[in-house]
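pasting for the record
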Amino acid sequence: MQSSRKSFLALFGVTLAISGVGVASDAADEASDAAPDTSMPFAEAVGTNTDKVTGSEEAAVPAARPADAPALSREQLEAAMAEAQERRAALLRPDPAAPNEILAERWGVEVIGIWRTAGGYMLDFRFRVVDQEKALPLFDHRTKPYVTAEKSGINLPVPVGAKTGAMRPTNRGKNIKADKTYYMVFANPDMHLKPGDKVSVVIGDFRVEHLTVN
């Protein structure tokens, strides 16, 4: 009799356990059904789709984009991309104030310009190689390039990192090529040079004067 009672209680416990699993599963399904569906195509998630979102799809738009912000049309996107490319191309044009014809003939380079960078604490000097052989002296690792501030006469050198070395290109890897743009970074402590200031860039015997800091 006692053995039958234990078997009944065990069977009753298993039934309750199965029933409990079923209830928990039903509750999870109901919670899942009640939760909003936030899935959407990746293009919509990053805000790049060009179709206007309407109806129930508006709820799926990420909070980062205002609800009342109109979606960009394909024409607007193409215009924005063209404008960005034009700005990039403008940054790569040779500086019209630099004597680039003379520099190309003597040194095989064209000066693109010099900009403040790193919050104004460094200077980014860029130039394009047009003749590889003539330009090689600018990449000699033994030279010590510097920028001279024409208003104060202060010389600003290329920083040298403990692990990265000098922040300038060299030809140690024999990889200098024509029709490529290269850069050198110069220190600008205390933001000594401001936009509009005139500077000279000196790399060994190479010297170009009266460049405007952008």
